[in-house]
Amino acid sequence: MNGSPVTALPPQPLSPLDGRYRDAVAPLGEFLSEAGLNRARVEVEVEWLIALTDRSLFGSSPLPDADRQRLRALYAYFGPAEIAWLAAKEAVTRHDVKAVEYLVRDRLAALGLDRIAELTHFACTSEDINSAAYALTVQRAVRGVWLPKLREVIAVLEGLANEHADAAMLARTHGQPATPTTMGKELAVFAWRLSRVAHQIEASEFLAKFSGATGTFSAHIAADPDVDWPQLSREFIAGLGIGLNPLTTQIESHDWQVELYDRARHAGGILHNLATDAWTYISLGYFAQIPVAGATGSSTMPHKINPIRFENAEANLEIAGGLFATLASTLVTSRMQRDLTDSTTQRNIGVAFGHSLLALDNLLRGLDSISLSRDVLLADLDANWEVLAEAIQTVVRAEIAAGRSSISDPYALLKDLTRGHRVGRADLAAFVQGLDISDAAKARLLALTPATYVGVAERLARR
Q1: Which of 51, 75, 158, 242 has its CA 20 to 30 A from that of 13?
Q2: Residue 16 lies in a domain
């Protein structure tokens, strides 16, 4: 059979986000799925109907509260019946937004509200509905699902930074032993970086347009030139809880999306850096991994616990970053007044945030399953006394500047002592004792150890 399966599999999810990892990303599906988008489209259509009737336009009158509630129930209780109805209708219309319009009209008839049916989708182009629906769904997904998960990671990092604020460790710049720091301070760096970007994302705009076929309100003015349609549009969009882009082509220009996805990609880059650093600290033995009962670390090597959470996060952040970059670079352009490249592109917003959310989930699990090995940190420090060369040459320079030393080139002096050589405590002590510096300066240097040469790292970590 040339390797072909004997029988075909039943329908399977193509994306791991809808299969293996579904539970981790399911909350995003409430908003960034096709059903979530259609629910938001229905919401926009219904609220536009209510806005028009509230102003008694074209012979209408404000709806009674009972009718408003029944209309709003169309999106509040949007479910399987509506999903199936829209799928069947779109198969005929070949147009997703038109199918939503027909759904609203159908439900108006069922509610006995045929009298306002012609106000459904009134003077709207599809992108009026779409731009508002995307702004709503992305806003709700980011603020309600993705950002809280990012904030969880930040909170865990802040907790670890505080817990390990005083845990001195050897720094490695360019992979080489360098001036010591503390594990808490290094984790605090990531918390601080992520907090900045999270704050920027929290301040993001979520914009829509609601100005007709080419952004000119032409049909609106033709229907009633006495209405201040731009003001009505502004009030309507503000009532949805999003912002208005007042100057557009047929589409909202997506610049707010470009800004958001660039910031999400930036956050992902910082998280990727966190994942690779955590992986490296585990490989150095700085962090021990906490065994999970019943879990297999390696299929052939029973002693191993692989840092799979950080590796999974790293890979998913790379996928998410690539998608966010594609979204940003594609959505920034639309040929003249409209083309459809954005339509397919925007359907992948949920995929990008899904991989990012999955990475955040794995980082949380990974950070929760490691324990700091302070004895390893101290042993590493004690094996690298040469890192005090910086302190010695800086103190000598200060002594020269103060007129208390005649040494001509302190940097060269320390370079000759330490570069390419391993020096220990006794070597450095003897070297310091022979320096032409004050007794007070010698005392400060002789009191230093790699574990105490951390400056104000602990205080910085506890910020």
Answers
A1: 75
A2: no
